[in-house]
Amino acid sequence: MMRTRRFYKITKTLLSYGLDDLIPAGWLPWTIRLGRHAFFWLPNKHKDKPAGVRLRLALEELGPVWVKFGQMLSTRRDLLPPDIAIELARLQDKVPPFDGHAAQRIIEKSLGLQSIHDCFADFDTTPLASASIAQVHTGKLKTRDGELTDIVIKVIRPDIRETINADLELMETLASVAAHHLPDGRRLKPKEVVKEYRKTLLDELDLMREAGNAIQLKRNFENSDMLYIPVVYSDYSRHNVMVMERIDGIPVSDIATLKARGVDMKKLAERGVEVFFTQVFRDSFFHADMHPGNIFVAKDDPLNPRYIGIDFGIVGTLNRDDKRYLAENFLAFFNRDYRKVAELHVDSGWVPKHTNIEEFESAIRTVCEPIFEKPLAEISFGHVLINLFNTARRFEMEVQPQLVLLQKTLLYIEGLGRQLYPELDLWKTAKPFLERWMKEQLGWRAIVRSVKENAPYWAEKLPEMPMMLYENLRQQHNIDERERELRKQQLLTQRQASTSLFWTVLTGSGLICTTLLWNQTELSEVTIGAGIVTVLLGLMAWRTRPKTKNNEFV
User: Does residue 189 contact residue 269 with C-beta atoms inside 8 Å?
Assistant: First the structure.
């Protein structure tokens, strides 16, 4: 019942804001056009507003699942008209807030406080920022040494889980329909993608998980001059409340302020690429929600700019095999070795084994060759993605659910690079990093690192080595003894089988002779004698058969 109500709510919202007008009528089947006329009581109530404003308001009204979809679209300036992209960018930190006093009560209940001032010297009920799932308030934390620290408190929106669950259930239904009816349903794996999206979105509702992610990222980039992660006060964090150091930075989308302060935009853009590849290939742990609303630039050193990251609800991880294949694919792309790219896709199982390598190589070359040796501003990655999608369809390439977050993060990185420094050579910036990483994985450095990582374990096991060696030798001796017994038994069984076969053949011959004599002389002394001999031969065959015990020959 809730799913039906939510479906009606979504339909009503989209039609009330006239979003059906954004889709050309020729693109819709007649059934959809007929269905639109069936909802005659839901006219466009916002005809006076531009299309971008209507889309933004509709997504805000529908809630967090749809807001996050709009956030991703806002970074795709090459796919959307400028007015729509600008409006969607407002979704990043301008979602209407909920009551600040309600947020205060949530904090007091979660932390077990009689009053919020028992823990915080100051708390501002007016939100500093409001996002789709949570909002942020400022305050001052009383430390144990009596000092006051500027902090922000993130609070999950009340009753947001019910809305998210309803939307996700509807998405799962639509994914099942798509998987069943779309020609590419099996390859695109819509059900698996929605399942992965469900996990990601529900993980974002747990601020203890986000606190852990922030602590891990901060440890990975300790003393880094590329990325700073604020301190998380985990003692004051709960599943729906998180307390974190307040940062002072410039939003990365505020290009005018960055330029006015003399920030080195080229270095800033290059460091963004390096931060991404470091997270993916060095740490296998990356911030997967890097839209402009979550990224700031420190004010302290404009010529040596450093990023500040916030909002760690969505992170991605890669296993060793996926990371290795990705790195090799990137390097093959950078070196324009399209045959290597095709072979890697087959080896990794991303395309079927029966794929024609030569044809696949040619198709990849056709798509990718035009993008090289061009500044970022001249590259339409939207067109490249469309061409790659068509190539994937031709060669039955399957969607990899474990890479969905990585793909989304790559889109964000491109969007940031386009805004910060359009002339950025993305390939030139990333290639040296990947080459260095591959050398560390395959060369002598990899051996040294492996020895260093395993040395403590080996040292711990060293006193046990004599006993382990003795046990291994004793087990080997027992195995050898058993193998000898098995070989003897096999030889005995073979002899028994040969003897039994001999008597069985004689029995068969005796039976044939007895039958012939019966036909010629009927019941005579010779026939009776032949029958008795045949019976005796059969008894011998039965007695010499291989014996079995517990379904095994003995």
Answer: no
Note the helical H segments in 348-425.
357-368, 381-394, 404-420
The closest alpha carbon to 239, from 348, 147, 320, 134, belongs to 134
498 is in an annotated binding site: no
Residue with tokens 């044939």: 512
Helix segments in 401-549, DSSP class H: 404-420, 426-442, 444-461, 465-521, 525-543
Cα–Cα distance, 138 to 110 (Å, whole number): 17
- Chain centroid to Cα 156, Å, comes to 24
Question: Token pair of 416, please?
Answer: 């940031």
Residue 58 tokens read as 């509709």
Cα torsion 62, 176, 205, 279: sign:
negative
Residues labelled catalytic: 289
Collapsing DSSP to helix, strand or coil, 129 comes out as strand
CA angle 278, 281, 285 (to 5 degrees): 80
Q: How far is CA 129 from CA 99, 215, 218, 344, 364, in A?
A: 13, 22, 23, 45, 44
Each residue's pLDDT tens digit, 433-454: 777 777 776 656 666 766 676 6
130 is in an annotated binding site: yes
DSSP state of 546: P
Q: Which tokens belong to 129?
A: 């920022």
Query: Residues of the chain with pLDDT > 70: what percent?
Result: 79
> Does the pLDDT at position 553 exceed 50?
no
How far apart, in whole angstroms, are the C-alpha atoms of residue 240 and residue 549? Answer: 65
Number of C-beta neighbours around residue 47 at 10 A = 10
DSSP β-ladder status, 249-251 and 307-309: unpaired
Q: Is 16 annotated as a binding residue?
A: no
Q: Is 135 annotated as a binding residue?
A: yes
Return the axis-axis angle of helices 426-442 and 320-334, rounded to nearest 10°. Answer: 130
Distance, CA of 348 to CA of 345 (rounded, Å): 5
Tens-digit pLDDT profile for residues 458-497: 677 777 777 777 777 778 777 878 888 888 888 888 887 8
**In 10 A of CB 501, how many CB atoms?**
13
The C-alpha atoms of residue 211 and residue 218 are separated, in whole angstroms, by: 11
Beta-carbon contacts of 255 under 8 Å, excluding residues fewer than 6 positions away, are 419, 420
Q: Is 154 assigned a ligand-binding role in the annotation?
A: yes
